[in-house]
Design brief:
Blueprint: E1 2-3, E2 17-20, H1 24-35, E3 43-46, H2 50-59, E4 64-66, E5 78-81, H3 88-95, E6 103-106, H4 113-120, E7 125-129, E8 139-145, H5 152-162, E9 166-170, H6 176-185, H7 187-204, H8 209-228, H9 234-240, H10 247-257, H11 260-280
Parallel strand pairs: 2-3, 2-5, 3-4, 5-6, 6-7, 8-9
Antiparallel strand pairs: 1-9, 7-8
Helix pairs in contact: 6-11, 7-8
The structure holds NADP nicotinamide-adenine-dinucleotide phosphate.
């Protein structure tokens, strides 16, 4: 696996991008691109819902928004598929004739590369798995491409594009994307689950819901940032805040007694199994 180099490849300002679907994730990418200084006058979005199309035009005035297929789509250097997975069969049939000669990047969960290639009638496809912090530029996206068909410059283009929503990480096999789905794709929900538990404990200890939330959130952000800025093993970082016989040791012993770590591993394996199942559906 390779992680985003620092800095990631930059996006050529002349790159023409077409989004199929103008929902939450397309908006996250658009906002990220603008934050990075990429002009949106070379960007098109196809969004059939008039209300959503209108809102996009209002929020991104330089953007070209189509409410259906357009010959202009053939100008795109890269087409980003940002519809719901169940909408892809229909959407691919509507637009593939205009986009046959270009790179296709899918952000759709669970749509296999072979399905992309068959329905889009090309092997120039990249699968990606973003997560919801992409909405505020703090996402991490797993990327997979069959390197026998997708060349380095196309992979750099994909990485530059997805870097607008946070970090990126290439994986070697398509199956690895199921693990990415189980880890960072579903991961924000695990963090919210732990934060809820911390907030519940805070209430039992006499703190308000707001105090519990603020303390829990800041602890997650602080500890994750500490780990991200350290080359020490996670176990070393944990040991460093765990004095023998102290408060942290009491809590960690309790977590161990309840096999919380093992349960967490089982939970993620269940997510991976479900991702595989959905990919076969
Ligand atoms: N949200 C996340 O955090 C997240 C994370 C990882 C991956 N993803 C993946 O990202 C993809 C998009 O998710 P999202 O949250 O952005 O969904 P979303 O908000 O529902 O956006 C999808 C958009 O595509 C439009 N659309 C439907 N059919 C279309 C067609 N034929 N042509 C053009 N546009 C069409 C939809 O319009 P209508 O409203 O009319 O249906 C909607 O505006 C999904 O495949 C999801 O699996 C999302």
């Amino acid at each position: 696996m390779t992680h985003t180099q620092s800095p990631p490849p930059s996006l050529d300002p002349r790159t023409e991008i077409a989004f199929i679907g103008g929902g939450n994730m397309a908006r996250a990418l658009l906002s990220g691109l603008i934050t990075q200084g990429h002009a949106t006058d070379g960007v098109q979005v196809v969004e059939p819902l008039a209300e959503t199309a209108h809102a996009l035009r209002a929020d991104f005035p330089d953007l070209t928004v189509h409410e259906g297929a357009s010959t202009h789509l053939s100008r795109a250097d890269v087409v980003v598929w940002a519809v719901k997975p169940q909408q892809f069969v229909h959407a691919s049939a509507l637009y593939r004739d205009w986009t046959a000669q270009t790179l296709h990047v899918s952000i759709m969960a669970g749509v296999r590369n072979a399905t992309l290639q068959t329905l889009l009638r090309t092997d120039q496809t990249v699968r990606t798995m973003p997560n919801t912090p992409a909405l505020i530029g703090l996402g991490i996206t797993g990327l997979y491409a069959d390197t026998s068909h997708v060349h380095t410059s196309q992979r750099h283009l994909t990485e530059a594009l997805l870097s607008s929503t946070g970090q990126t990480l290439w994986v070697d096999t398509e199956d690895d994307l199921d693990a990415v789905t189980a880890l960072s794709g579903s991961g924000p929900a695990y963090v919210f689950y732990f934060l809820e538990a911390m907030q519940k404990a805070a209430a039992q200890m006499g703190l308000t819901a707001q105090q519990g939330r603020v303390l829990g959130q800041a602890t997650f952000i602080g500890a994750a940032s500490l780990a991200a800025n350290s080359s020490d093993d996670l176990a070393v970082l944990r040991d460093r805040v765990t004095s023998k016989g102290g408060t942290t040791a009491a809590a960690l012993n309790c977590l161990q007694d309840h096999a919380v770590g093992d349960s967490f591993v089982q939970a993620m394996l269940a997510a991976q199994a479900r991702a595989k199942e959905l990919g076969r559906a």
